[in-house]
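Quick start: read one record
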Amino acid sequence: MTDPTTGRRRRTGRAARVLSGALVLALTGGVVALAVAAPADEPDPVPAATVDVAPTAATLVCPGPLQLPDDTLSGDSAFDRVPVAPVEKVTGFDTVASGTASLTVLGADPVALAGGTGSVSAPTAATVLRAEPAGDEPARVAGATSSVVIDGDLRGLAAASCARPSADVWLVGGSTEIESTADLVVVNPGATPADVTVQAWGPSGAVDLANGGTFLVAPGAQRVLSLPGVAAEQRRIAVRVTAAGGQVSAYLQDSLLDGFTPRGTDLVTAGTGPATTQVVPGISVVATDVDAADAGALRLLVPGEVGATASVRLLGPDGDVALPGAQDLDLPAGEVTDVSLGGLAAGSYTAVVESTEPVVAGAMIAREGKAGELDEGPRLERAWAAAATPGSGLVAVPAGSTGTLTLTAVPTDDAAAEPAPTATAVPSPEPTEGQRPDPEATAAAQGPTVTVTLRAYGAAGAVGEEEVEVPVGSTVAYPTSGLGTGVAGVEVVAPDDASVDLAWALYAAVARPSGPLVSVLSPVTDAAAVSTAQVREATRIGLG
């Protein structure tokens, strides 16, 4: 029987080769132009021939272990701020089990993905996931880092997908106010030093960093910058990391305390760069008041010189939902703004932001837990969701967690004039084991639907497949347990329908007696895989 995704993969491979060929042609033309200044009476140069360029290896960077607090600064040597050691693991999977994929902790030997899956326990630094292409097809791998802390200052599930390195990284989330920690980790997986520049914005505009915001990251190494030390007292922040001389991965470890009460720890990961339309999937909320601690928030920033007017739509289980006060938002240039997500019905949502000027976006979700022995109030768990590129792709399920895919069929401009449908009820953000949407009920929803193919992978390769009907303009939550047992990762195949974009993410949860620990993971999308890489020229000698 023919694999329904074979044609799409071949088209993706051909697109990657064409784009790579175009890049080679552009570089070749640049060299010719620099080498020869032809007189006007000389014949035009012979046109370059189009050549196929073999697909390159895939390189993803997985966040390293949590940065632990320095107890020597607490003034009480008997007080342990992290009384229970974090349980940390990096997992990866290869859709074709090529035998070339491996996980390599910086400074250590590689660990092969035997049979298409593999893991590293207690990594001491960031981990690089690499795989060679399978014949003429590009490598398709994904991985995730998981850090579980059940007590102390860093209580929470800090999980994130392994991400492609880039010369331009945007991180929307975190804080540097008192009792917050914001550790920026920059990883250089390449073979040359990277000249890194950091910019930050807060509620009052751009922030002048105390150290100037520039530093070098050696090849195969990482650097940690404590943002409260260089950009103190910023209640809301957004960060940009740019690199010259190579490409880097960057993430922000965000945690918050209220006295002795933990208020959540998570990783703020890279989202899409400034654009007039931003899509933030994976916003899984519980029913709360607008000003409740666990209400969650949508964070927005116009990083340019001109302010903007923005509108926000939330596509949820019942279709398009208006967010009070967010239909005509005034966003001053350079100021970080939070919009409360309180007052929504419980469920999974995708935020669609339309702005008159390029904007960056992210979202925070929260879960209230029980108070501990030393806590003055209920504990809180928080997780950050990043803006993502819609389309087909892969995501790994963090070790020790249960995963739920949030799938949203976002109408494109061609379908924007059609009324939003009303969808049937879907599983809660934290479904019970094995619970999944009823296909007959979903098909009976008012309005058109699109078919999304889900394919699960485990130690034995592909372990399950399911087709899910998603109403256009709505979000469906689907637990990965519905695809089989031992699911290490999932491939999501978007519908071949120009009227919709498929936005999706993975909501991961760890059940605890004191309350759930949660995180939101962005996929590695095929759309990003076929885009051309951008590398800035180094500004320091020896970094070219």
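The first helix runs from residue 6 to 35.
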